[in-house]
Amino acid sequence: MDQQSVQGNKLYVGGIPYRSTEDDMKKAFEEAGTVVSASIISDRMTGRSRGFGFVEMTNDAEAAAAIAALHGKDSGGRPLTVNEARPRPERQGGSRGGGGGDDYRGHARQPREPRW
After folding, report:
1. N or C: which end of the chain has fewer CB within 10 A?
2. What is the pLDDT of residues 2-24, one digit of tens each?
């Protein structure tokens, strides 16, 4: 399947009220067309909503209709941001852990001579 066509159907949704569920989001977007999937991104540590998510519509026309209908619409006192999702940027440096051997001041650690 063509990556560009898939991206055109996938929408970024920001400003989602923290108490909203994926079902709530799906119902709101079904007014513009058929929703393939809806997901709200949650914090890994707390499990609470981060206030944004993604909705995938069946085709580009339905995605455009959803943007036109819902972008800027008030939802629980917050304006929704709805636009075409962009591909996630490539991360540099591989893993996110550790510090690469730097000490607390950001300087590379020097090997120590053993104390005999």
Report:
1. C
2. 333 345 699 999 999 999 999 99
Per-residue b or e along 97-116, where b marks 16 or more CB atoms closer than 10 Å to that residue's CB: eeeeeeeeeeeeeeeeeeee
pTM score, two decimals? 0.70
Euclidean distance between CA atoms 19 and 4, whole angstroms: 32
In the three-class reduction of DSSP (H, G, I as helix; E, B as strand; rest coil), residue 3 is classed as: helix
What gap in Å lies between CA 51 and CA 69, rounded to an integer? 19
Match 């591989």 to its residue by tokens.
94
Residue with tokens 């569920």: 21
Taking the domain 3-84, which CATH number applies? Answer: 3.30.70.330
